[in-house]
Write a structure and sequence with these properties.
- With 190 residues, the chain is an alpha/beta fold.
- It is 50% helix and 9% strand.
- It has helices at 16-21, 41-49, 68-80, 99-134, 150-158, 164-171, 175-188; strands at residues 2-6, 29-32, 54-58, 85-87.
- Helix 3 (68-80) runs antiparallel to helix 4 (99-134).
- The longest helix has 36 residues, at 99-134.
């Protein structure tokens, strides 16, 4: 069996008896002891090596992602691919007889944490928007005003003396902004 250690001080988290229990030696061990997250290339490469005959040792679940959603997705991937994994700070994952059930419980917990995290983010955003509105802070993009020469250019354009591209260039407007202003102008000046 090949063992992969992933996370900050992953190997230091185990004592020698655990190494014996898992038949761990240098020939069947890959160690990545940097504090990396699952979005890093090293972890992506490591995932390609994992299968049901390998065991992934993780220092703790926070090494699998930056957010609870990323962690949940990584745990789901491991479970869906039948990859045994041990989370060093969760002792029940060390017992092979209950590891799969424990890993599924870890997934269930991380799923709930991801949902709570998403709810909290949305609440914080709503609160921030509400506070900004109370203080009169403007939200969104700044309003684009008509250029000083708009009337003159509009009259030239409507009389077909200049093209739309020339209008945009002379007014120093991008295409989308030009057409938005044009639409607004036509609505307000019928």
């Amino acid at each position: 069996m090949i063992n992969y250690f992933y996370g900050n001080n992953a190997v230091d988290s185990f004592d020698s008896t655990i190494f014996k229990d898992f038949d761990i030696n240098e020939d069947n061990t890959f160690i990545d002891d940097g504090f990396k997250k699952a979005s890093n290339m090293e972890y992506s490469q490591l995932k390609k090596l994992l299968n049901s005959q390998t065991t992934l040792f993780i220092a703790n679940t926070s090494h699998l992602g930056k957010t609870k959603r990323e962690i949940k997705n990584q745990i789901a991937w491991l479970i869906n691919h039948n990859i045994p994994f041990v989370v060093m700070n969760i002792p029940d994952t060390l017992n092979p007889n209950i590891r799969l059930q424990t890993n599924k419980q870890i997934y269930s917990t991380s799923l709930k944490e991801a949902e709570v995290e998403q709810i909290n983010v949305k609440k914080a955003q709503a609160q921030g928007i509400q506070n900004a509105k109370k203080t009169g802070k403007k939200m969104g993009r700044t309003k684009i005003h008509y250029p000083n020469n708009w009337e003159e250019l509009y009259n030239q354009w409507s009389n077909k003396a200049i093209t739309a591209v020339e209008f945009m260039n002379k007014a120093n407007l991008k295409k989308g902004t030009f057409y938005n202003l044009l639409k607004e102008y036509k609505l307000n000046h019928k």
